[in-house]
Design brief:
The chain is about 45% helix and about 15% strand.
């Protein structure tokens, strides 16, 4: 029996309406203690209009939505209280519910209960959080595919194939005396493991490609002072965020900005001009600039009519980078094959196309993919164990030893969907969620 939990499901700010969520076996009883109607006899989903009361005093006029187990998001009896969107009212109602037996929900506890009650698997649960945190339509659409269960459906045949190999091996090991049992041949293990590895590697490839739509990409803008780095950041994010002056060393800290490039969230870092400086504050900014370069997925090395500073270029040449010639409006002689823009005049279209080319950003294909660190890490583990099984088979190892690696791959498959009993892992995942979700 789960305790009745309560939390605000809408943002904690003044609004037209607010929604308070409850879930638990006793939630109808708890809310009936402060509502003008008795909901303890509710047998099906319904809408109820009345007042939330504290003693004889009305707190607010509300609409209640009741969901009877198992026909709710959590799989438990659940109530949603739609109240006026004053935080004063919200806090009064929650306080009244707490007095009558509810407790405050922890981060992600509603989704955690949905998972524990078999309403969703772990991939779907993670998709909920990804939906909430999506900053582009493409990222949201990819999460929606997983939320509907399509991604898990694509993976289930892979898990079942591994289970089939294991079951055949186990029968051969446990019942060798039965002659009518089909013996699992090493050729069969090689063939099936190879096919499964191919299927998993396709999922990894798609996931790595689509991961940028979920996590975004980091781009550092570097160069000498006064080459137009801050002007470029302003042009790309289409707002005057970074201060632009003709004075070298104006940018002393890393200035951040975000924009959407073909559905990919781009996190920009405008850095201090890298040069020798005795100014302590400017030097801190230069050190931060160097760190931003190390952490970037792509570096935009900005140069002007004075050309490339070779010493500075040596700092970024081993990173994925694009050399960008700025101030094209005043450069008379242009070299073929070089990239020219004018950040001051917002002429940055050629650079955007080059970034898409460099990072292989194309039209996103919305299909089932695993694209977070946990999921991709588990898929790679599965490939590792299955390759071990192939190596052991080729080395004529005993069948029971080969099965150890295949069993490890199968356990990974269970972990991916959350079907192994690992409460410490699932607790950590749900702790990243919002309270009320």
């Amino acid at each position: 029996m789960f305790e009745t939990i309560v939390a605000l499901a809408t943002p904690p700010a003044k609004s037209a309406l607010a929604i308070i969520r409850m879930s638990g076996d006793d939630c109808f009883k708890v809310v009936s203690n402060i509502f003008t109607k008795d909901l303890t006899k509710v047998k099906e989903k319904g809408i109820h209009y009345g007042y939330i009361k504290e003693g004889e005093k009305n707190i607010d006029q509300v609409v209640l939505l009741t969901y009877v187990a198992p026909h709710s998001f959590t799989g438990e009896n659940s109530v949603e209280i739609i109240t006026h969107g004053s935080m004063l009212i919200v806090n009064q109602i929650i306080a009244a519910l707490l007095k009558n037996g509810a407790r405050m929900a922890t981060n992600g506890e509603f989704s955690s209960r949905a998972f524990l009650n078999g309403k969703i698997d772990l991939v779907q649960a993670e998709a909920i959080n990804d939906m909430i945190n999506a900053t582009t339509i493409e990222a949201k659409d990819l999460s929606m595919v997983s939320l509907t269960g399509e991604t898990s459906k694509v993976f289930k045949p892979i898990k079942d194939k591994i289970g089939e190999i294991l079951s055949h091996i186990e029968v051969n090991i446990d019942y060798p005396e039965y002659e009518d049992i089909e013996e699992t041949s090493k050729e069969e293990i090689l063939q099936k493991c190879g096919e499964i590895i191919g299927n998993i590697e396709d999922l990894i490839k798609d996931g790595e490609k689509n991961r940028m739509y979920r996590d975004g990409i980091k781009i550092a803008i570097v160069g000498k002072p006064n080459v137009g780095k801050s002007s470029l950041l302003n042009a790309l994010i289409k707002e005057d965020k970074a201060i632009v002056t003709a004075i070298p060393g104006t940018t002393r800290d890393v200035v951040e900005g975000d924009f959407n490039l073909a559905g990919v969230p781009v996190h920009l870092y405008d850095t201090a001009g890298i040069r020798e400086s005795n100014d302590v504050i400017e030097q801190i900014g230069i050190d931060k600039a160097k760190k931003a370069v190390e952490n970037a997925d792509l570096v935009l090395f900005i140069v002007d009519e004075t050309g490339i500073d070779n010493e500075m270029y040596s700092l970024i040449k081993n990173q994925k980078h694009i050399i960008v010639n700025n101030k094209a409006d005043i450069i008379s002689k242009k070299e073929n094959g070089s990239l020219y823009i004018s950040a001051k005049n917002n002429d940055v279209a050629p650079l955007l196309e080059k970034i898409k080319e460099e990072l292989n950003i194309g039209e996103v294909v919305i299909k089932p993919t695993f694209n977070n660190t946990r999921q991709l890490g588990i898929l790679k583990q599965m490939v590792f164990y299955l390759k071990n099984a192939i190596d052991d088979t080729n080395n004529n190892q005993p069948i029971d030893l080969i099965s150890v690696s295949i069993m490890a791959a199968y356990n990974c498959a269970l972990d991916l969907l959350g079907q192994n009993n690992k409460n410490d892992l699932t607790d950590e995942i749900f702790s990243r969620f919002c309270v009320g979700k």
